[in-house]
Design the sequence.
């Protein structure tokens, strides 16, 4: 467990498209001590496995490699939550 954004969806990531550079993260209202694999899961869900793999490739010393299975699991759960929310609204 560590300090996490806890809602790291595509709309909260700031990117300089021209420079092909990640520049920051906004909306920290859901931040909490949590499993960092959940933040990675939302990257997987929103941006796909290619961007997810690029994210892992650019982390500090590969510390998230062991979290890949959990991140994919959380991504799948998050998709189910989205479907359930849509069905109920």
Sequence:
């Amino acid at each position: 467990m560590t300090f996490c954004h806890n809602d790291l969806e595509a709309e909260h990531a700031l990117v300089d498209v021209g420079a092909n550079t990640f520049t920051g993260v906004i909306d920290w209202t859901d931040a909490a001590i949590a499993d960092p694999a959940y933040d990675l899961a939302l990257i997987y869900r929103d941006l796909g496995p290619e961007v997810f793999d690029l994210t892992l490739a650019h982390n500090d010393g590969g510390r998230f490699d062991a979290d890949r299975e959990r991140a994919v699991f959380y991504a799948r759960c998050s998709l189910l939550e989205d479907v359930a929310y849509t069905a109920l609204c």
